[in-house]
Amino acid sequence: MRVLFLYNEVESLALQYLSKALRKAGHTTGCLFDPKLFDSFRAEVNLLPGLDRVFSFERQILERVAEFKPDVVGFTVLTPNFSWCQHYAAKIREIVPNAKIVGGGYHCSAAAEDVLRTELFDYAFRGEAEEAFVEFVNSLEDGAIDHGIDNLTYLDEHDRYVENPLRPYESDTDVFDFPDKDLFHKLGPPFDAGTLVQLNRGCPWGCTFCGNNKYRKMYFPEKKDYMFTRDFLRMRSIDHALAELRWLKETYDPGLLRVNDDDMCADEAWLKELAERMTDAERIPYKCFVIPNNVNERTVEYLKRTGCEQIQMGVQSLTMQTRKMIGRPNTDAQIAKAVDLIREAGIGLYVDQIFGMPWESEDDAKKVEQFYIDHPADFVSVYWLDVWAGSDMLKQAVAGGMITQEESDAIGSTIRDGCISTKREWHADFMKPYASRINVRNYFPNTAEFLIKTGLWHVVDKLNLFKWKRLWWAAKNTIRKDRYPPAREGYDFSWLRFPRLAWFYGKLKLKGWAGKLVGIKVKVPMSELPPLGKPYAERSKDERGAPILDHAREPLATDPAPAAAAAAEQVDHAA
Ligand code: SF4
Fold first, then answer.
1. What is the pLDDT of residues 222-243, one digit of tens each?
2. Which pLDDT score is estimated for 493?
């Protein structure tokens, strides 16, 4: 079978894992990428209205779809990109009417029925679907789709929604092969400027605004609170993690890495062992995510030794009551200590701070501003609260009067144009001046106090000089792809990536216009990866039934269980 994935804006590790599993089963995979120039989820790069249409690659992408001749087209559907997926699914239906159009990803887990009721997707998968998706494609090639596959959802012949059970979370993450980096790397820029890696799967927390909140409810409905639990956190063996880093370095030599783990410090013993065993053959400068609970003198040292150059830390709220409500049981003192330790270690610190929680007051905003004066980070990134389908924040937002019940009910099916919070800032207008002054300190650190004392910050805000400074930093930092931009100047390598992306696709557009004059067609890049081993059609019955995940690997060199238990105890204590 030929399986084509479509994605936009950024690299997708989920698709890379699916691709590898499919190819091991004997199928061909490919990927088409929509750069969405000037239509990015980062609003500051959308320079002028209408530019997105001028620089659209829709026609070329659809031509490539027809050329690939897919049997299956797969989308990773997220709440913010749902409308984009719908748009392309509708077009693809016209071009390759016999291809099955399949959705996976967070939005399918949270609102599969809404996805299917659009009638643009034939099937949707909930949860982690490496095995389920391969079984689905296998059965399609065998001549009849197996409708009993776990995780699968569909509308039956009577238009009834059918949701098959979830298979349990795979707890041994060493069974997943290294992801197919080539799926994106072969597309060329900007994927040559850094790459993603997932060392461990899952998050031990379940914050009410986050997708992990929904996954926790799906996989562990008996867990009623959002407290730390190791059930979600699935650590790879150090051997397996190091082997992937070595392979990445040898094969792609990425200058920069973004470790996608939700909380890199969640298991201190694991991180310690990683630091002790890592050599230069595996060390790649990286950026990672942490939350304050697990940041201490030791974890910061391990991060430093393993090559961490930047940390993005989700603080989200500086009010104890709010943190309790969203599932972040940490203290102000823990947050302050984490900020100070990371800065003292010389690691760039980028802090995420949510504004616009339904119940927040002006005093809360004042506290945020003062906190970062007392404990400065390199950059304090203010996000307006985004509400995702399926998360408990939906209920909290209705209860707090932020959205109506009708709006909440409609989020699964009708959300358009990305995050809701990019369209509305709800009732939190009183927080705007605080957000602006935080940005003045972010972007104009040397003159910030003068601008704030004299009131000139209003002018800076009105003219949105932040956007232009941001763009300048992005352009400046894109020239060097072998080092991170300073934390203040860059949101990891996506800021190296955007100008690179714009440059590459901008040139392609110009070539396309010029080509039209002389009758030459310009194509957008498309990756196509052959099966690993024999194609499925040529495999014997036994080979076709081979296990998808490799449970038969060698025993781990290190048993992670005692270390994991110790770390859980430590973190539970901290919480
Ligand atoms: S700690 Fe981060 S990744 Fe984990 S549930 Fe909370 S917001 Fe999500």
1. 776 666 677 788 999 999 999 9
2. 61
| Domains of the chain, earliest start first | 2-171 (3.40.50.280), 194-385+428-488 (3.80.30.20)
Residues 294-322 have pLDDT tens digits of: 999 999 999 999 999 999 999 999 998 88
Better-scored residue on pLDDT, 502 or 339? 339
**pLDDT tens digits along 40-67:** 766 667 777 888 888 899 999 999 999 9
100 in Cβ contact with 127 (< 8 Å) = no
206 Cα to the center of ligand 1, angstroms:
6
Measured from the Cα of 291, ligand 1's closest atom is 1
- Give the predicted TM-score (pTM) of the model: 0.89
Neighbouring C-beta atoms of residue 171, cutoff 10 Å: 11
- DSSP conformation letters of 37-79: TT--SSGGG--STTHHHHT--HHHHHHHHHHH--SEEEEE--G
Task: Determine which residue's CA is closest to atom 5 belonging to ligand 1.
Answer: 206
Q: Of 218, 260, 263, 317, which is best to mutate to test ligand 1, by the most ligand atoms within 8 angstroms of its C-beta? A: 263
Q: Is the dihedral of CA 562, 567, 570, 575 positive or negative?
A: negative
State the closest ligand 1 atom to the C-alpha of 328, by its place in the atom list counted from 1.
6
